Fold Fatty-acyl-CoA synthase.
Amino acid sequence: MLSTMQDVPLTVTRILEHGTVVHGRSRVTTWTGDGEPHRRSFREVGLRAVRLANALRDGLGVSEGDRVATLMWNNAEHMEAYLAIPSMGSVLHTLNLRLPADQLVWIVNHAADRVVLVNGSLLPLLAPLLPRMEPLEHIVVVGPGDRGLLAGCRPAVHDYEELLAGRPATYPWPELDERSAAAMCYTSGTTGDPKGVVYSHRSVYLHSMQVGSAESMGLTDHDTSLPVVPMFHVNAWGLPHAAFMSGVNLLMPDRFLQPAPLAEMIESERPTHAAAVPTIWQGLLAELTAKPRDVSSLKRVTIGGSACPPALMKAFDEQLGVQLCHAWGMTETSPLGTVALPPAGVDGEEEWAYRITQGRFPASVEARLIGPDGAVMPWDSESAGELEVRGPWIAGAYYGGAGAEPLRPEDKFSPDGWLRTGDVGVISPDGYLTLTDRAKDVIKSGGEWISSVELENELMAHPDVAEAAVVAVPDERWGERPLATVVLVEGSTTGYAELRDFLATRIARWQVPERWAIIPTVPKTSVGKFDKKVIRKSYADGELDVTKL
Ligand code: AMP
């Protein structure tokens, strides 16, 4: 028997219309460095999004299904693109400005982007690549920048404000199928070509509801959220659309992502929430220790993208009174997968034990662990396996290219359609996920597994260790052994033996690394995660100064 309910499509258009009217007074504030921050109400942002849609259609000939790329920082104009492009039935394609040039070119060509909206400050990055970006027909420059760099380029060049000027304040939004493409994002794959994940209107809408809900980020129009996570990194973890849906004020950092300006914008604009990867919070902690600022407005900070060291979480709690809330996700999961809010009725050590997990799954994300022999493992906090997930905002395939079938590589999707995350961990009986590793980062030592993440967390609990990354290196006797690479706090003279003895008090002795290297900084990926393949390569090439204890 069918229900008697209406079947209304869930679309970004609805988010745009709702936010513009009902939350018209909420604001997007964009940091400008030394100048006065730039403030725009949701009403203005919404109306400008309507004008942008008209400009794209009438000025540039963009139609439904066309890909429109952005190469932009987090700012109000990017927000306008986030709303306008999907609502008109086109596909918002956010480009990761930190990718190597060849990958950026490959991605633009694969997605067949017809238009790119680019911040003027990023023209030095884009201009030299244009001859190789064949599908691009139009470049829309947003904000100041050296437009001379575009002289003689093939695509037509437009100014964002000039393009919007005088455009109508209404748009005949198309009736969209909620399953149609709204946005796309390529994973910065470590092997092979990057893979495109295409989000639907339905997935964006449902994900936005979850992001806002109390069991995830719990945000309302009383809040101001600071997404430090870039809008090209899984749609800034869904915050822009979720914010427009619920009227959450946004504080956009633009290109000012260094610890000092972040500290300054938190002190002066007083956000209640922020989101970023652990390396950003490491940097901010060091900054605030050297030069204290008032960051007491932050009620909760969402931290994820890579494992949050418990020591960092404790330092924020104890030194700053700010609660870091751990969350897990990936490009393929929109990204919200788990959030580590402790259950009711726990406190003290028990509460900490929950907070340092990756968190628990919302109802819409189903999870299972697949053990080494392919069996589904129990949720008993002990049986480890590869995490597989499914749900309405989890990818079921990758973009195959225009006209091509979607891609479902076997290593990424199970025969029954679940996403293979490549993450290894355990789940507690009450549904909290603890990741021990990426499948490819696990250290297989003499038939036992050593968790690189655990070693890193324990090392980073030492007061003289600023950062630590542990990788597997070949070992004649054990197959693989851990190599610990450590960044010491400035001025520290702590030696390897002391670090080894410290670890030996905290983990099983056989897991303590014999190989050590002090390095100036841990190499990072384009989205700020530890880049372990670079460390492995430096080791293999004999470039690391390794001490064996
Ligand atoms: P990306 O698609 O670039 O966002 O990368 C997703 C991957 O980041 C996941 O598969 C995990 O390996 C890792 N990751 C994300 N969040 C966490 C977390 N809280 N703890 C550990 N690893 C994480």
The mean pLDDT is 96. The chain is about 30% helix and 25% strand. The radius of gyration is 24 Å. The domain at 8-200+231-249 is CATH 3.40.50.12780 (Rossmann fold).
